[in-house]
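Input/output pair, single chain:
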Amino acid sequence: MKRKRKNFGGIDFGIRSSSGIGVFSSCLVAAECLLFLAAVYYSYLKQGQAGMKIGAIGFLVFVLSVVGTVSGGYGLSREGYHHGADLFGLIGNGIILIGICVLFVIGTMQGI
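Output:
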């Protein structure tokens, strides 16, 4: 059976769409960025004296970035979908994950 194609103004678009898991991964990137910026702002308001709350938010961002990286990778392995959202989610979550790990290492080296 031949795939149906949509025609918008003479431009053909296939019937494939973005995978839901890729959109989820991309939304996690936005949520992680907002949480990280909120943690930085809260730390600024408390003049650096908000240790446990900032640590909890940082750990939440870490867990969300791991979930987003795994879901982005899983979305890339699925066939029949556009992979733009999957790729964006995978790269964005990977960058955030590396950034959080670097901040953790810098923080532990400050205590030595």
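The helical segments are 20-45, 51-77, 84-110. Residues 51-77 form the longest helix (27 residues).
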